[in-house]
Design a protein that fits this description.
Oligomer: single chain
Order of helices and strands: HEEHEEEEEEHHHHH
CATH topology: Alpha-D-Glucose-1,6-Bisphosphate, Chain A, domain 4
Pfam families: AHSA1
CATH class: Alpha Beta
CATH architecture: 2-Layer Sandwich
Radius of gyration: 17 Å
Structural class: alpha+beta
Number of helices: 7
Family: Belongs to the AHA1 family.
Distance between the termini: 20 Å
Largest sheet: 8 strands, antiparallel
Number of domains: 1
Strand order of the largest sheet: 1-2-8-7-6-5-4-3
Shape: globular
CATH superfamily: START domain
Length: 219
């Protein structure tokens, strides 16, 4: 796996809001530049044969109007697609519906910038308890998987990923991700003490989940 600190520092995170028809939604934005051409990054993110090499097995129809399902995780409907620039889909998990939007931008010298927005109506109590790390840590792990795959061309071994996640490096990665999402939350106006308390809780959840408890959110 890529060095934990190096990967964390390569990613940018931001918290914002968006007004939808159903009301105010929270927007978590995560982005990274990859040393890969836009066509390769697009294929890795949209090809059903490649997605499991760095993320999760996926079934369904990956086209506008099609339904998809990630194994053991979210499913939804593909709403927009503009190859190789952007796509948008619903993100449905645990009876809740949110949305993801992915944008790719060429940055020259064969490099590509990926930005992902996760837009969700989040209960105020749940947000106060876990903060943006509830979804943010999961997306950080996903971008780590994509970075590893794009840099090596190889498929990640789920057993090796699980072992790494439980290792000292894996725990460091989760701790650093939680810390950076805490910083993004404070920058967005969250009280510092409240943001830090939420970061501690979400780190504990990801590293020692309570028996029988469901995850605060999924990516």
């Amino acid at each position: 796996m890529i060095d934990a600190t190096e990967q964390i520092n390569a990613v940018r995170r931001q918290i914002g809001e968006r007004v939808l028809e159903a009301g105010k939604a929270r927007v978590s934005t995560i982005g990274q530049t990859y040393e890969a051409p836009i066509e390769d990054v697009w294929d890795a993110c949209t090809n059903a044969e490649r997605i499991p090499r760095w993320f999760l097995p996926v079934s369904g129809e990956l086209k506008v109007g099609g339904r998809y399902q990630l194994e053991g995780n979210a499913g939804g409907t593909v709403e927009r697609c503009d190859p190789p620039r952007s796509f948008a889909a619903t993100w449905e998990f645990g009876g809740q519906v949110s949305w993801i939007e992915v944008r790719l931008t060429e940055e020259g010298d064969g490099r590509t910038r990926l930005e992902l927005e996760h837009i969700a109506h989040v209960d105020d109590d749940l947000w106060a308890q876990y903060g943006p790390g509830a979804v943010g840590i999961g997306w950080d792990l996903s971008l780590l998987g994509l970075a590893t795959h794009l840099s090596s061309g190889a498929a990640l071994d789920p057993a090796e990923v699980a072992a790494w996640s439980a290792s000292e490096d894996g725990r460091l990665f989760t701790a650093l991700s939680s810390e950076r999402w805490c910083e993004a939350s404070i920058a967005a106006g969250t009280d510092k003490d409240a943001a830090q308390a939420a970061a501690e809780r979400v780190f504990a959840f990801y590293t020692t989940p309570p028996e029988g408890a469901g995850e605060p959110a999924q990516t």
